[in-house]
Design goal:
- Among the domains are: 120 residues, no CATH class; 61 residues, no CATH class.
- 12% of the residues are buried.
- The chain is of the alpha+beta class.
- Helix 1 crosses helix 7 and helix 2 packs parallel to helix 7.
- A hairpin with a 6-residue loop joins strand 2 and strand 3.
- The structure holds zinc ion.
Amino acid sequence: MPEVIVIIILSVTIIVCTIISRKRRKIVQDTSVMFKKLLELNSKYNFNWNIQQQYTFQISLPSKSKFDRYELIHLLDKNILNNSKLMQTSKEIENNRNLYKEYSTKINSLKSEITEEQTKTLHISYAKYIKIEQKLFSKLKINPILDNTIVCTATYSSPKGRNHYFKTANYKMDQVLRRYTILQLQIANQNSEKMRKKRARSQMTDKLRYSILKRDGFKCKICGRTAEDGIKLHVDHIVPVAKGGETVSNNLRTLCETCNRGKSDEIE
Ligand SMILES: [Zn+2]
């Protein structure tokens, strides 16, 4: 019988304690200016909660040597360039981060505004009030999605399936954004190089071609033959366009077809 009494006393104590702590929490919720300001801020900031928090990319390689040489960053790069959803996610995360920066600054400037005098009238100790207020505050402070993980995996299985090889790397959103900047620069450089080559080729006009042939005495600069020897003369870039050569007279010379072929794109 005494056990039952102990259980009853314990239960009643727990119930009473719960009621008291609920009542105290209610008092703090109703009177805390800091808490009210937090709720106001929360309603003002619309964070995006529909962000994909993990991406998994996989590549299966056709041989062991290709597997060994494969760098997982290439798989990330490939998806940065082709997976529009991944880039959409990184934009959403950036937006959340910018918003959160602003939100945190405002949140961190909030301070308890309760005075010891006021807590006396609420029949709660000042220390207890502050403790409850802090607890409520950290519970209701928004923690938005600020990052995600990109898992890249490369695999290789030997033909008879005897051996399986596997390597993996995890990337975070900052790496994605860094790689994106690097890749954009590379693409821009490639495009400007294409433009340079196109320009260099278009600068080779009939007029310029004739002036070079004339300057070189209508003779191949290597073998010395002329049109009278039954060969065709070309105007050649000494430093090829592909290797950065410009279409300017000091980079041009007359060559016969045979010498030109022998030279191709090599710099002598
Ligand atoms: Zn020649």
